[in-house]
């Protein structure tokens, strides 16, 4: 193990996924309540970048990298309890789209 840069926002019960380009996407989690914040880690520079936030704050959700290089975030816990919503992250645009 070796230490690297710190995320911009502390969190727990978040998800992380390795993207097609090798960067790591960290999304959501809890920090005194559910958060919608997302960050990208670039292992080549060992730096974190804050990116556009998800539409819905959530923690304990799932994250899946799809074959089209987009990322699907599903379910979890939010401000009002269990979430059934899903969001799609498109790294080429940097945008999250609510899917359901």
Strand order of the largest sheet: 1-2-3-4
Q: What proportion of the residues is helical, as a percent range?
A: under 10%
How much β-strand is present in the residues?
35-45%
Give the helix tally: 0
Largest sheet, described in full?
A: 4 strands, antiparallel
Tally the structural domains: 1
Q: Which shape, going by the Cα principal axes? A: globular
* Global Rg: 13 Å
Order of helices and strands: EEEEEEEEEE
Q: Which stretches are poorly predicted, pLDDT < 50 over at least 5 residues?
A: none
Number of strands: 10
Q: State the separation between the terminal residues, measured CA to CA.
A: 39 Å
Would you write up a description of this structure?
β1 and β2 form a beta hairpin. This protein is globular. It is an all-beta fold. It has one domain. The mean pLDDT is 96. It has no helices and ten strands. Strands 1-2-3-4 form a four-stranded antiparallel beta sheet, with no helix packed on it.
SSE blueprint:
Blueprint lengths: L14 E4 L5 E4 L10 E5 L4 E5 L10 E4 L5 E4 L2 E2 L2 E2 L3 E5 L4 E4 L2
Antiparallel strand pairs: 1-2, 2-3, 3-4, 5-6, 6-9, 7-8, 9-10
Which key features would you list for this structure?
100 residues, four-stranded antiparallel β-sheet
Quick gist of this model?
The chain is mainly β and 100 residues long.
């Amino acid at each position: 193990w070796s230490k690297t840069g710190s995320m911009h926002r502390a969190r727990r019960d978040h998800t992380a996924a390795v993207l097609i380009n090798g960067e790591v996407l960290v999304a959501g989690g809890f920090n005194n309540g559910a958060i919608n914040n997302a960050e990208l880690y670039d292992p080549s520079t060992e730096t974190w970048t804050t990116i556009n936030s998800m539409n819905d704050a959530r923690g304990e959700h799932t994250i899946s990298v799809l074959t089209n290089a987009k990322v699907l975030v599903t379910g979890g816990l939010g401000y009002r309890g269990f979430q059934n919503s899903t969001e799609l992250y498109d790294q080429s645009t940097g945008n999250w789209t609510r899917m359901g």
